[in-house]
Amino acid sequence: MKWDEMIPGASNTELAEWMRTIPEGAESSWNVKPTQQIPVALTSAKDGAKRLETAHWSLVPPWSKDLRLKYPTFNARSEGLSEKATFKGPLKKQRCVIPVTGFFEWTGPKEKRTPHAIFGPDPILPMAGLYSWWKSPEEEWVLTATILTRASAGVMKDIHDRMPVFMADELLGDWLDPETPGDQLLVDAVSEASVPIASELREYEVRPLRGDGPELIDPA
To answer: Fewer CB atoms inside 10 Å of the end CB: C or N, the chain?
Structure first.
């Protein structure tokens, strides 16, 4: 995820209106892990402003007393999402898109896992997500986010049983509009529309991921 490539890479996409400038403090990374910062495109429910921010990767609901939950929230299963306490609130008006240049997934047994670099058909691969604002005991607001997942399709089928919900252009506007009713019907439509994108992905094996740098996406 190289920031100076992401902004021009989005210039001719549906995300162009959200991805105009690099967020303050954003740092490029090729090995982002849960609880680190990820890019988030959102439309403010308060004033309708289209924004690109960085967010803590693991959604933390406002009622949590701690930024670190006892259960993982960096991913959210799209199936039955509207019934899950942690996610049904953000689903209503706090939907976002996580724009990435690619991601990693692993195959093989735990003791000898093989990482794969995965890229979309375009420079930017948008993923559907949810966001939430969490207020720390020190009265500081922290933007947090999660990535939606679904059963794998296309290229992902031979790699993992789950994959991110890739954001189709035709539904991106509705997903990012806080005035669009956030319900399970919308989630299911976005999930289903990601299937054709999964067939256009490209992937290849890379060496074990150590450290952080562009060399991590070199073929093994």
So the answer is: C
